[in-house]
Amino acid sequence: MANVITSVNELDFGLKDLESMPAPGKVLLVKPTFFSVEYVINPHMEGHVGNVDKLQAQNEWEHLKSAYEELGLYVHVEEGRRGFPDMVFCANQSLPNITKEGTKQVVMSVMNADERKGEVPFIQKVYEDSSYDIVHLDGSRFHSFEGMGDAIWHFKRRLLWGGYGFRTSKDVYEIISETFDTPVIALELTNPKFYHLDTCFCVLDEHSALIYPEAFTDEGLELIHSIFTNVIEASKYEAEKLFACNATCPDGKNVFIQQGCVDVNHKLKDAGFKVHEFSTYEFLKSGGSVFCMKMLLW
Predict the structure, then answer these.
(1) Alpha-carbon span 53 to 180, nearest angstrom
(2) Exactly one of 200, 202, 245, 292 is catalytic; which is it?
(3) In angstroms, rounded to a whole number, what is the distance separating the alpha carbons of residues 265 and 182?
(4) Active site includes 76?
(5) Any residues with CB less than 8 A from the CB of 13 and at least 6 apart, and which?
(6) d(CA 210, CA 245)
(7) In what order do the strands lie in the sheet with 183-188?
(8) What is the pTM of this model?
(9) Which of 44, 90, 154, 196 is catalytic?
(10) pLDDT of 225-278, one tens digit each?
(11) I need a surface site. Which of 155, 189, 225, 295 has the fewest CB within 10 A?
């Protein structure tokens, strides 16, 4: 069902019409050994160059790793690489998929910033070792595509949500939709502080999402509300300063989120989710939090 949707008028399906997909059972993490803020490629990095407490960052990462293990996910840990301080944000270098026949595929990213382009081959090696079919985009045709930073799977349904406007080219979704035989709902991002879809949009379960509405156009919000019956909204403070929407809910029940998101956490608990708070303050200095720091795999 290849198709790219940009308005509700183009929606010709409901969730029940979409193919079911298994939830991923593995998680990829990259050690923060070389994590630091060495340059500025997003607004959150400004003022933080050379200002990372590496020991604290390691402790924060270890707590997240333990939580995935306790949730029952298989955790694959990849070594960081010198010269690539943002490689720890391993949601960005790829977009994996599994077909209904069980074939594993992955589209490798074309990173927007030159500083991050060299991360992609290291992450590709992980997929090669895990028997994924590797797909490369035409870098001369598409300026940028930053993996699951912008392309996010619906929970247990063959549907992709695709952000564009800052780090990902809109037209790349035509290729991804065809490659994965999957519909893509494309959402334009309008605020440079929310430069990836995963900074303002979190799929919680099949019917629930957490968003920061001011990051989207009216058309985008209409699309989100047309699919999700339960849309939880984050305040500007919690979305911008605490990256509330950069949470993750691997099993549709347990939400991993940056600590201190008081309002959002109340809403999540009221909706029946179990909330697990984590300190990712060192990683916030680089413009990333819980979602950015992992890749869920099949």
Answers:
(1) 40
(2) 292
(3) 32
(4) no
(5) 1, 183
(6) 6
(7) 3-5, 183-188, 160-164, 151-153
(8) 0.96
(9) 196
(10) 999 999 999 999 999 999 999 999 999 999 999 999 999 999 999 999 999 999
(11) 225
